[in-house]
Amino acid sequence: MENTYPDGDNYVCADCGHEWPMVAAAKADDDGERIVKDSNGNVLADGDAVVLIKDLKVKGSSTTLKMGTKVKSIRLVGGDHEVDCKMDAGSFMLKACFLKKV
């Protein structure tokens, strides 16, 4: 409509009160799926194998996931921890920035 105005990081419609972001929230490919990239910028997909690039302490446990540990058959999920995987130490949700595609 004609009566829109910027308010902080959003545009606001004065007629209906609807708000929407000025900048797109997340990158998406042609299918509308979220693109997840590893620490080197390689695009990750379900079923890929990755390697940890840093020792990661497991919150609430004395377990540490060691750098260089290979993880097979990852699964991409939504949220800030984009990668769901199973390892010898158990099932974990990891951030893609701590992974490198093999």
Protein described:
The protein has 102 residues and is mainly β. The protein folds into two domains: 1-25, no CATH class; 36-101, SH3 Domains (SH3 type barrels). It is 0% helix and 34% strand. The chain has strands at 4-7, 10-13, 19-21, 50-52, 56-57, 64-65, 70-71, 75-76, 83-87, 90-94, 99-101. The strands form four sheets. It has a three-stranded antiparallel β-sheet, with no helix packed on it. The model is unreliable at 25-30 (pLDDT under 50).
Q: Strands, helices and their partners?
A:
Elements: E1 4-7, E2 10-13, E3 19-21, E4 50-52, E5 56-57, E6 64-65, E7 70-71, E8 75-76, E9 83-87, E10 90-94, E11 99-101
Antiparallel strand pairs: 1-2, 2-3, 4-7, 4-11, 5-6, 8-9, 9-10
Shape: elongated
**β-strand amount:** 25-35%
**How many helix segments?**
0
DSSP summary, beta strand count = 11
Enumerate the strands of the largest sheet in spatial order, edge to edge or round the barrel: 1-2-3
Structural class by secondary-structure content: mainly beta
| End-to-end distance | 49 Å
Q: Report the biggest beta sheet as strand number plus sense, adding barrel if it closes.
A: 3 strands, antiparallel
Q: Which spans of ≥5 residues are poorly predicted at pLDDT below 50?
A: 25-30
Question: How many structural domains?
Answer: 2
Helix content: under 10%
* Whole-number mean pLDDT: 84
- From the alpha-carbon coordinates, what is the Rg to the nearest angstrom? 19 Å
Indicate the CATH topology of the largest domain.
SH3 type barrels
Q: Which architecture of the largest domain would the CATH scheme give at its second level?
A: Roll
CATH superfamily of the largest domain: SH3 Domains
CATH class of the largest domain: Mainly Beta
Order of helices and strands: EEEEEEEEEEE
